[in-house]
Amino acid sequence: MPAVTLSTLQALKQKGEKIAMLTAYDATFAKLACQAGVDVLLIGDSLGMVVQGHDSTLPVSLADMVYHTAAVKRGNQGALILSDLSFMSYANLEQTYASCAALMQAGAHMVKLEGAAWLAEPISRLAERGVPVCAHLGLTPQSVNVFGGYKVQGRGEAQARQLLADAMALEQAGAAMLLLECVPSALAAEISRAVQIPVIGIGAGVDTDGQVLVMHDLLGLSLSGRTPKFVKNFMSGQDSLLGAFSAYVRAVKAAEFPAAEHGFSA
Ligand code: KIV
Hints:
Blueprint: H1 6-15, E1 19-23, H2 27-35, E2 40-43, H3 47-50, H4 62-75, E3 80-84, H5 93-106, E4 110-114, H6 120-128, E5 133-138, H7 144-147, H8 157-173, E6 177-181, H9 185-194, E7 199-202, E8 210-213, H10 215-218, H11 241-253
Parallel strand pairs: 1-2, 1-8, 2-3, 3-4, 4-5, 5-6, 6-7, 7-8
Helix pairs in contact: 2-4, 4-5, 6-8, 8-9
The structure holds 3-methyl-2-oxobutanoic acid.
Keywords: Cytoplasm, Magnesium, Metal-binding, Pantothenate biosynthesis, Transferase
Main location: cytoplasm
Enzyme class: transferase
């Protein structure tokens, strides 16, 4: 049992204290992130881009996710470990159960799935079977080919109402946490108020219950040379990785990151 559990995250939301989540892909960086006070380590399928050098998350396999989850578990010092289900590893219920078992047996305490209302059934079945689920809404990178690029989601009244309805339906289905990526800040604030479960944002403004960044982005490292609007380089002004991670955690906890300039309008 990690020091940070679902109850810890729920209590942080109730007290209005922010949750700091950061991606990690190996033992050394996982340990450093824990020393900096990160609450949740996310083994994101972003590893397809920042570790493997692909241009999307689609080539990442479940075996890759299991490998990196096991590595992070070995470096973890009390954070809650959240692992992504890779593209098409949750296409039907039987496959979803097997994929979750593999990730949790490798060390995950919670799994993350990308989607919308269609996730209600798998989420409720998984919750019944002892698998806590984080539902990733908004810009879901595994659907980049449907979106036609990495675009802000939930803009305009109809899309915003749909996203709010999806969030509430997934909470009702049994989701333990939501992650909102690249949605207008005002909408993310509304969703965070509307649900009782913790809501983590990336490119979703400061009013969610917590923040997540891809570790390489936080460190100012970019293979493509492009920096998304919602990223801040926390290495700048620091002389160590621990200093950069600690600056991120402090800024999240103090609600100083993200600033208005990192968010999106409706
Ligand atoms: O894969 C990942 O790192 C993620 C974050 C971008 C939230 O899902």
